[in-house]
Amino acid sequence: MILGAIAAALTKYGILGLTFSSFLSSLVFIPGYASFLIPLFVGLDANPWLMLAGISIGAIAGEVVNYYLGLIGSKYILHLKLKKAKKWLCTWGDMSIFVVNMIPVFPADVVNILVGFLKMDFRAYMISMSLGKIIQYSLLIFGTELLFKFVSVI
Q1: pTM for this structure?
Q2: pLDDT tens for residues 85-117?
Q3: Handedness of CA 41, 45, 48, 50 (dihedral sign)
Q4: Is the CB of residue 64 less than 8 Å from the CB of residue 126?
Q5: How many other C-beta atoms can be found within 10 angstroms of the C-beta atom of residue 150?
Q6: Tally of structural domains, the chain
Q7: To the nearest 10°, the Cα dihedral for 34, 36, 37, 41?
Q8: Computed from CA positions of residues 49, 54, 57, 58, in that sequence, does the dihedral angle turn out positive or negative?
Q9: SS3 139
Q10: How far apart are CA 114 and CA 73, in angstroms?
Q11: CA 7 to CA 37: how far, in whole Å?
């Protein structure tokens, strides 16, 4: 019953609903995974490129909010025991942000707040995080489409 209501709402608002859902689920204080909606939209024959644009834009915007929450929070919270986190960021930097944001169902929101807290260069952060999100959603969307086509043939 609840899933039917969610499906009806998302069908009504389409890609805009997917974008908003992706934005909300990317915020650290609103847990959720917009990627679970991908099979629904694929099943509704939504345009995969619009899906990719909508879900990526929403996720990237949500992660930027998380970064700034960390950046603002760093002014008010004492920097206790962050040596390991700083070492991790200095060692792996952009690549770690890329990988963390590429892995589905990984709590990247928390990592993105930490990156803001540690004041990583915003430009490098945006490039790494955005590429990770876009690749993650590309694989999920087009992989789901292939799976649906394969199942329909069988």
Answers
A1: 0.82
A2: 677 777 777 788 888 888 887 778 888 888 888
A3: negative
A4: yes
A5: 9
A6: 1
A7: 130
A8: negative
A9: helix
A10: 10
A11: 9
Contact indicator for 70, 111 with CB cutoff of 8 Å: no
To the nearest 5 percent, what fractions of the chain are helix, strand and coil? 80, 0, 20
Q: Amino acid letter at 154?
A: I
Q: What SS3 string covers 12-64? A: HHHHHHHHHHHHHHHCCCCCCCHHHHHHHHHHCCCCHHHHHHHHHHHHHHHHH
Separation between Cα atoms, residue 113 and residue 74, nearest integer Å: 10
Pull the structure tokens for residue 63.
């992660």
pLDDT in tens, 55-84: 999 999 999 999 999 888 877 766 666 667
Residue 54: domain span: 2-153
